[in-house]
Design a protein that fits this description.
Blueprint (H helix, E strand, L loop, with lengths): L17 H5 L7 E2 L3 E3 L1 H4 L7 H22 L1 E5 L5 H15 L3 H5 L11 E3 L15 E5 L13 H6 L12 H26 L17 E7 L10 E6 L5 E5 L7 E5 L2 E5 L6 E5 L1 H6 L9 E4 L10 E7 L28 H10 L1 H8 L1 H4 L2
Length: about 375
């Protein structure tokens, strides 16, 4: 990726000030976000000696953490996800979104708190709030975790099984294979993050042995030229630990906020975009910041192309603490200690505090 602007310095997490939200002017420069080859850490030769292997792994870990420190983002190649799987996932997603709306709605969310299945482009609600101009299909773990009371609010929020459409017939198989592949990659990336922070390699492992990570395939429908500069996806920070994003192509629109400005995120074919979410920000006491980002409607003919993105959102065990790692508690400069567990935090951001407190009770959301 060719740098065309100074490397941005990330904002503190949750820094969605009114000025950031209301700044709808399209950026004029591309952010210098590190392009990192993961293959020395993920595809070491079988005959490589252990010392060289560890050195190569630590070098990649330091590059990854360094990029996260600066921008909250990284663009990675050498991720070992087969191109065939990336292409299949993009193709089956396009086929699903091309179905008639009434057919897609048959697998819509069963209720607002059950984030599984199809979510259509929202209708304007009459308020001044920008709507997200995209439709999505979301799944959770292929193998359902059964650790919540049947019928409970906790089960509805965090353990509801995935919902599958009849068409395309190959969709479930492709989605489940993609989920498992990205889930395994995400676990390795967290090991690298731990190494780059001088934490034990397995520091994150016990926080993800009952996770509820969501896989979302998103479609931004084509728009006419009059939509140029509109918001396709409102400014936000991601809820979970890390997001693994694949862009089959990029007509334009993904932007990150830093140094008081919005910057375009450049496109590298075949790459993945990684970004830090709220939970990883808290675990690292702000050393790795969750950076506000958004999607705008690009200019001219690019708006008429539509846009596609596929994201695995790493979401830890619902009862995992989001307090900083003890080794980092005083290192990030924030000393932020949270009594909130991961599940309630993520659900609050998705549904709103009032809804989650009504479902779980105030004590559950702040334990």
């Amino acid at each position: 990726m060719s740098p065309t602007a100074p490397t941005p310095v990330a904002e503190p997490a949750f820094a969605l000030t009114p000025e950031i939200v209301k700044d709808v002017a399209a950026s004029e420069a591309t952010a210098t976000i590190a392009l990192i080859d993961l293959s020395p850490a993920l595809a070491a030769p079988a005959d490589q000696d252990p010392v060289s292997r560890e050195q190569a792994e630590k070098q990649v870990a330091d590059l990854l953490v360094g990029s996260f420190r600066e921008t909250g983002f990284a663009v990675v190649t050498g991720h070992q996800v087969p191109c065939e799987l990336l292409d299949a996932m993009a193709a089956v997603s396009r086929a699903f979104f091309a179905l008639p709306l009434e057919e897609k709605l048959r697998v819509g969310f069963p209720s607002p708190e059950v984030i599984r299945g199809y979510e259509p482009v929202p209708a304007p609600d009459g308020s001044d709030r920008e709507i997200n101009l995209m439709e999505s299909f979301l799944i959770n773990q292929p193998s359902q975790v059964r650790d919540m009371a049947p019928g409970s609010a906790q089960e509805r929020l965090w353990r509801w099984p995935s919902i599958w459409p009849d068409q395309p017939v190959e969709l479930q198989g492709v989605f489940e294979r993609y989920y498992r592949t990205m889930d395994a990659l995400g676990a390795r990336l967290l090991e690298l993050v731990a190494l780059g922070l001088d934490l034990p390699r397995d520091w994150f492992a016990d926080k993800f042995d009952r996770h509820f990570s969501n896989l979302a395939s998103n479609h931004y429908p084509p728009l006419d030229d009059t939509a140029e500069g509109q918001i396709r996806n409102r400014p936000h920070t991601d809820h979970g630990a890390m997001t693994l994003l694949h862009r089959p192509s990029e007509p334009g629109g993904l932007e990150v906020h830093a140094q008081g400005h919005w910057w375009r995120v450049g496109f590298e074919p075949g790459s993945l975009v990684l970004n830090v979410g709220d939970i990883l920000d808290r675990w690292t006491n702000g050393q790795l910041p969750a950076t506000p980002h958004r999607v705008l409607v690009p200019a001219g003919a690019a708006a008429r192309q539509g846009r596609q993105s596929i994201a695995l959102f790493q979401q830890p065990n619902p009862d995992a603490s989001v307090a900083p790692a003890p080794q980092l508690a005083a290192a990030g400069g924030r000393d932020r200690v949270s009594l909130e567990a991961a599940g309630p935090h993520i659900s609050r951001k998705e549904l709103g505090s009032a809804t989650v407190e009504a479902l779980l009770g105030r004590r559950e959301t702040s334990r």
